[in-house]
Fold this protein.
Amino acid sequence: METVGFLLDGIFTSLQWFNLVLLIFGCLIGLFVGAMPGLGSVNGVAILIPITFIIPPTAAIIFLAAVYYGAMYGGAISSVMLGIPGASTAVATVFDGRPLAVKGEAMTALTAAAVGSFVGGTVSVILFTLFAPPLAEVALRFNAPETFALMVMAFATFVGLGGDDVPKTIFSILIGLALSTIGLDLITGKPRLIFFNIPGFLHGINFLVLAIGIYGIGEMLWTLEETKGKVQMSKLSVNMKEVGRAFGALKKTIMAMNIGSFLGFFVGILPAAGATPASLMSYGITKQLSKNSKEFGEGVPAGVVAPECANNSASTGSMLPMLTLGIPGSPTTAILLGGMILWGLTPGPLLFTQEPEFVWGLIGSLYIANFFTLVLNIALIPAFLMVLRIPFAILAPVIFVLCVTGGYAPTQSLHDVWLMLLFGIAGYILRKLDYPVAPAVLSIVLGPLAEKALRQSLILSDGSMGIFFDISEKPIAAVIMYIAIVLLIMPAFGPLYRRFYKKKQTA
Amino acid sequence: MSITNKITVKRAEIAVAVILALCSIALMIKSAENRITWNAEENMGAGFLPFYLSLGMLICTILTIIKFVLKRSPQSKDDNPFIDAVAFKFIAVTIISLVVLVLAIGYLGIYFSLIFFLAFYLRYFSEKSIAFITIFAITTPILTFLFFEWMLKIPLPQGISEPLFYPVYDFMYGGFSFAVKMIFIILTVVLPTALVFLTTRFIK
Amino acid sequence: MSIIKKLALVVVSLSLVAVSSVSSAKPFSPKKPVELIIPAGQGGGADEIARLVQGVIEKNDYASKPVIPINKSGGSGGEAMTYVKKKAGDEHTLIITLNNVLTTPVNQPELGIDFFNDFTPLARLITDTFLVWIATEGKNTAGVETFDDFIDLAKGNGLVMGGTGSMSEDELLLGMMRGQFGFDAKYVPYSGGGAVAKGLVGGESDFTLNNPSEQMGFYQSGDSKALVMMTPERNPAFPEVPSSYELGYPDLEYYMMRAFMAPAGIDAEVEKYYTGLLHTVYHDDEFQTFNIDDGKLMSWLEGFGLKDFLAIEYEKHGEIIKNFN
């Protein structure tokens, strides 16, 4: 119960007025940075590290936590309002958030995102407080074979995500994976697929480039064609009735909240996984388990809740490997880790016992940040909805500007802006011909993680695939692998089962 | 009979499938620059995965082509134009202006390129007044600058316009008080933005 | 269209004014924020030093413009080096080095990087050391107390070594040790020193060649232990770990240098300014304390001394790579 005391201390510290002002300021910065395509919490946190030399460490942590959480929420805003994922963690939010906004239910989507995020954040703080030490042990035992099994499971959850045309869906998955192999091969140290020896390919293809290209540029071209530039967005009224309706829609998303919170936290604590795979997996599983899984992708609140819940839950979870193992699960935690080292804290198993004030202060302020971001978000929904009132002819160039800066900023290279443009145009044409684009985006995210884990495992096992199925040597990997295989096969048996069932009924 | 009518969905489908097949082959050849074998003695070569992934892509495109030939996909029977003439014009103008924008960013720098891009695009697609467009086209790059370079400290490409920003940097990082800087921001950002809002309301 | 013409006129005239006002002679100081290129990802050793330098400069107002760290981790530093090469003559770009600046030009000749002519070395601030680490409860290394125990064990069994990526410093080091001690190990690359350290403690690998800071957390908690430090002397941060000289292996000496370079073709004035700036940072109390606590060696080197050092190291690494292949 000592930890609860430290946690409460952390919470009360964040509630002092100076810290509170910092917190709200941090949330706003985070929201804004998160909502900008291509920029995420990593940018917000990076600029703040030098500032934290000037303000006291406690205040600095609170500030950083606020920015971190703000950005997690902010990503959803541009996913819903503009159809461009604001951050990598919000890619899955586009799948249903955007269709909802187009249907005129942006209010519902934003409310779902905000409440989902809050629930995810809350559950993860509780889990963190109760189970941090044993979970750190799990994270430590989670090595290459386990990671690969998890990635296979992630892919298995996406089986249902493609379109009706099977070869085109598989093509989309494969091209995403193939694009993800561009750059330096970690295992052999050899450059791969460096087309025309352009140095820009050396850093590989950042999946944000693909996502912004397809969902930003591609989507704009699509809208331009549909509307011929003469679009008038529907007038949205924000009144209490609408708010009530939006909250009412959340009743049906309890399952998504559960899946998102728990799965998100679990994937988040695994080293090298982090919030992006967590949100994608949560979306995939929620869709598969949902009774109306056909409606996913056309705008259901559960499709927004699941990834948003998961990415917030995972972002708290990913503090665990950072604090106890010194392994950052994301660029943001990497910078945070750098900051910790600069403050004279050594991440490692002893951090929880030697610096409990720091650890629980961080978690406490994450929680308070979570709460304030929810309040800010709900309060700002009318402001976000103003975006929909901007005439398309003005919104379109602004979105293009956001895409260009967003494509440039993460890697600081114009090469990526060209690629983004190319992906946008190609994505638009392919989408018109019924090639599903979402599988490509998913596989470019998971591809590098999966490849690395696969090849590390194969080195360890001298090339034998048996390492993934040996239940006595690697029980975790084997169990996950078998679940993944069942998930992969299930959709194939679905129709058979239904046919059989029907026959029995008619007989 | 314009060109957009000649490009039917049917033709686009087969053309895209063939192009993708060619791309897959190119990827396979490129992957083969690294070792593509995997056997008991040696670990998986660097080219193994990309090679077989692109082989898979090739098989998928061939399946698509077979489905096309057998007329099994909806696209293979669709004689409607792939894109209608009006939309084509809009999309072509958008794509070309974006390409010009990115070209210009490399040379002229992002801030000035944006001014031209926004001015052109708004003039072409919207019915806003020149006054509105001017203010809008100038305010957006200023906001972009303040947000990226000042707040986030992310340098954006400036090309040949770089020396123009030296005085601005001197001001930003010079010993001016916070108040002076705020007044500056208000003058450069808030006023034009307010003007944009006013003009949207009253000028159209 | 007339508006565009007018704007173009304004731009042209403004740039003329700006260009003419810049070319007056004054002692150099940066005119815009200085880009500090990091040829590695976020969270690594180079990143840590770069952000520390940024923080120290900003906190104490050592420079008139901020230093902005930019990670360009592609191609083992190849991307960063190509970028800096293209920036020849640019007065607002710096690069922090890992040893990959010595190996990448050799390993990837297609990049066309000429180590001696594409960069202006400014100063070396720190050298980082390497240690041989095993897990305290490692199942294959049970009973290993000293480095000699370890060599005996490693000779007989194919141990697994976790490392930071193929052809990176630690794999070259493994190659060196293979030549010296006659044992080989299975090399498993991870992404980053932190992941390597975790792989060791998590039981996936049997030993690693980590920098001190990467293992510090596990070292303090007693989960991992170091057998030898590849330096002539013991390090105050690890008082009980013997040096390789003590154990009688003076050939087992290897360092990671943290130096700063600028692009080629900058004025002597500019070079002097940045070297001076780095010197100020080097003597900053906070900078010193942080690095010494972290087990790093403070080793200032500039001018001809640095150039000689780099030439020797470049030669040495070329040799190691040749032997490795």
Observations:
- The mean pLDDT of chain A is 83.
- Chain A touches chain B through 59 residues (CB under 8 Å).
